[in-house]
Design a protein that fits this description.
Helices cover 64% and strands 0% of the residues. Helix 1 packs antiparallel against helix 2, helix 1 runs antiparallel to helix 4 and helix 3 packs antiparallel against helix 4. The longest helix has 27 residues.
């Protein structure tokens, strides 16, 4: 898919979930967990746009940093040859998913978002958490 095909009528870039733009076409980009962690990241950015301005440097930044951490630690973990190193990066990534879940729980209690608005993010949290947990267990069984 060419980049020209990814522009809507308003001139905004839109990319299907399976579209990956990276200079390095590494094996981890073909894994489901890569796609789910990207979706998690995008959903975190989408939902935090709804937060009040006074949260711009608090919950918004915390959630967004954690979301980026999930995706980047997965990528870095996949590049590691050592099982112990790989597992450590995956554990950090999974910890960031838990951090997002906790922060979103607070934002819900503060009534920044509704359950309906959170549904896509909740699905992304659950799917990403399950896949990362499976990767950690998979590494444990290969020792």
């Amino acid at each position: 898919m060419g980049i020209r095909n990814c522009v809507n009528l308003k001139g905004q870039f839109i990319f299907p979930l399976k579209f990956t733009f990276m200079f390095l076409q590494l094996a981890h980009t073909k894994l489901d967990v890569d796609q789910f962690s990207q979706q998690l990241c995008l959903e975190c950015y989408r939902i935090t746009k709804k937060f009040p301005n006074d949260e711009k440097f608090a919950l918004v930044q915390q959630i967004r940093r954690a979301a980026i951490s999930v995706h980047l630690n997965l990528a870095e973990g996949c590049s590691r040859k050592s099982l112990a190193e790989r597992k450590r990066f995956f554990e950090i990534s999974r910890g960031s998913v838990i951090e997002i879940d906790s922060a979103i729980g607070i934002s819900f209690k503060l009534e920044y978002v509704t359950l309906v608005e959170l549904k896509p993010l909740g699905d992304a949290i659950i799917n990403t958490f399950k896949l990362i947990s499976g990767m950690i267990k998979g590494d444990e069984t290969h020792h």
